[in-house]
Amino acid sequence: MSVVTSSLSEGQHRLLLSLLGHVRLHLLHKASVHGFSALAFHNHCDRQGATIIAAYNAAGFVFGAHTSQDYAQSGADVCDEKAFLYSIHTGGGRGGDKTLRVALGIHTACAFKDKATGPDYGALVFLHEDAAKVQTNPGEGGFTFEPAQMHGDDAALTEFEVYRVEGLGDLLAKPWRNIRWSAERRQQLMKTILSYKPEVQTVQRARAVLVGPVGAGKSTFFNSINSMFRGNITSQAIAGTAGKSVTTQFRTYTIKAGKGGAVVPLILCDTMGLEENAEAGLDVEDLIHIFKGHVKDRYQLNPSTPIHQDAPGFQERTTLSDAIHCVVYVVDTCKVSLLSQKMLDKFASIRKKTNHLGVPQILLMTKVDEACPLAAEDLQNVYRSVYLQRKARELSESFGIPMSCVLLVKSYSEELELHKDVDILLLTAAEKMLNYADSFFENQVVAEDREEVDLYSSKVTT
Ligand SMILES: Nc1nc2c(ncn2[C@@H]2O[C@H](COP(=O)(O)OP(=O)(O)OP(=O)(O)O)[C@@H](O)[C@H]2O)c(=O)[nH]1
Ligand SMILES: [Mg+2]
Known about the structure:
Helices cover about 25% and strands about 20% of the residues. The chain is α+β, with helices and mostly antiparallel strands.
């Protein structure tokens, strides 16, 4: 998935947050990518709630406007007592950033004119004449400032970004999911998982596959589950960040409890990341072959060459053991609002085909520590964070997956040692996968005395 990135430096980002309070910024519009036009701005920024503009110029200023109200091209003067203009100037040579915050005048509450033009704050009009520039009208509207202090009298814009300002809210008085955070609970979950036996006698272990965009944390999730059962941090699957999927092979991982210990009755399958373009990333039809159990471990996936029945890694006849019993969609919590329509459409098409095969699905939201400072501070806040609950709802709605199937996790990404709370979230996810695999088995009409069950052979292919 191509990701549009912010031009704010870490320091500028921090200063913006200090002007806004306990919030998180989500980039909605970046003019160098989407266009320096009012139309492109409104396409991305209308009806997004609170936003902040970051306009950049060659004189080293980042300046803009914050409003708590929607842009909607209503033609009205919008009142907003919370609105302000600001400027951050990186103090050339002397170091340190200078910040200016301009509130509305005491007698004026009209913050901006909600027109079809670029954002018009009276004294500052961005994307003036549909170009990369700002018009400064000293004395007009409710904001008063010295143009030199605002932007160093440089009206040409090198970049123009708009962020949605998302309040992180506080903590819910009661968590929306009850998790017991004790060491006993950790042990209990471990024991339940290790003693799990599939409902069907011919199957030894449940098989779950991790499916999600590039960099969502699929391989790291497997590494974390593996580490937890091994008792120390391991990194069997290669993880990391690159423009394209780091994982290119289909892998089926058997997990052991302790070095050389018992085999955990859950096989985790790792796949190549999904990309929004049809011809890039993991192919949807390849994924269906994987779900049906046709693809062998270490199959080299290739977006431009879909899996073919004659390929060496293709297994013609499959049994219930080879098939996928639970599909786990993996999404980076930080990127929930950045999922493009194309990516959501791809997920919808996968979901449709998966439903058709009758495979249960759950949604794993990773990187909760990166997404919410309250969860980073104390992982036990994960189901109490208003922000994370909102993200879970957003994702559950766009995927059409019930909230009860949405699980939040933090994987071992930089730790050297295991941690009880991280383990409890990981184990809770693993337990859910086993429960859902059982629903799959219950739905199969299986002749239990038969060794081989040709699961999908009589079914309509996708
Ligand atoms: N902070 C934090 N970082 C994480 C977490 N999970 C994964 N990461 C980081 O996210 C990056 C991508 O993780 P991967 O596991 O390689 O992602 P993937 O989904 O396998 O990506 P592809 O194989 O490229 O499709 C890595 O740098 C991980 O360290 C998490 O829960 N918290
Ligand atoms: Mg991977």
